[in-house]
Amino acid sequence: MTLLDKDAVLEAHARNRAVSSLLNAIPDAILDAQYDRDELTLTIAKDHIREAASVVQQAGYNFLEDVTCVDWYPSEPRFHVVYHILSHKLKERVRLVAPVETIDCTIDSITPVWPSANFYEREVWDLFGVRFNGHPGLRRIMMPEEWEGHPLRKDYPVEGYR
Predict the structure, then answer these.
(1) Domain count across the chain
(2) Separation between Cα atoms, residue 75 and residue 22, nearest integer Å
(3) Domain range for 52
(4) Is position 88 within any domain?
(5) Are 130 and 120 in contact (CB under 8 A)?
(6) Are 131 and 125 in contact (CB under 8 A)?
(7) How do beta strands 106-108 and 131-133 pair?
C-alpha cells in the first residue's frame, strides 16, 4: 500500500476508530484495507499483529469473536490468519488479516491482548500448522497428540499420511 493509499483510507474511514488509531500508532502495519458490505477488513503485517490487536482494543473494540485461518495454497503468502473483532459500544466490527508465508509459518500470539484467543490459536496451529510465538500452551486441541501433519492444509493427503 502506498502512502497515497493510506491517506485515502484514512480519509474514507476518518470516523472509524480502528483505522485512525492504527495509522496513528503504527502506520506501517496496514498493508491493505477494504470496506465491503459494511465490513472493514485490514491486512496487517504479521510482525505487527500483537501491537495492532492492542491498538484496536484500546480504540474501543472490546470483543474478540474468533481467530481462524485460510490456506491459499499454492499462492504465497500461503496462509491468512483472520481475526474478527467487535465493538459493542460502537456497534462495529473489524477484521484483521495477517498473511503468513510457508517458509516462516509463525506469527505472534495475541493471547497477551485477548486471553480468549488461546483455544482459537491452538485450533489454527493444530489444523493448519501456523505456530503462534509466545502462546502459553501451544498443543493439539482437536487431533490426537500422535497425529502427523495438519489436516486442513490443502496439500494434506485426503487419506492422511501412510
Answers:
(1) 1
(2) 27
(3) 3-104
(4) yes
(5) no
(6) yes
(7) parallel
Alpha helices in 26-162 (DSSP H): 49-58, 117-128
Q: Give 116-149 as a 3 state SS string.
A: CHHHHHHHHHHHHCCEEECCCCCCCCCCCCCCCC
Nearest to 100 by CA among 88, 112, 89, 109: 109
Q: Which of 110, 115, 142 is CA-nearest to residue 128? A: 142
pLDDT tens digits, one per residue of 53-89: 999 999 999 999 999 999 999 999 999 999 999 999 9
Q: Let me know if residue 31 belongs to a domain.
A: yes
Contact status, residue 44 vs residue 77, Cβ threshold 8 Å? no
Whether residue 17 lies inside any domain: the answer is yes
- Of 160, 156, 154, 158, nearest to 73 by C-alpha is 154
Can you tell me the distance from the alpha carbon of 115 to that of 162, in angstroms, rounded to the nearest whole number? 37
β pairing state of 92-100 and 106-108: unpaired
Give dist(CA 52, CA 29) in Å, integer. 7
**Average pLDDT, integer, range 38-66:** 95
pLDDT tens by residue, 101-145: 999 999 999 999 999 999 999 999 999 999 999 999 999 999 999
Q: What is the CATH number of the domain that holds 97?
A: 3.30.460.80
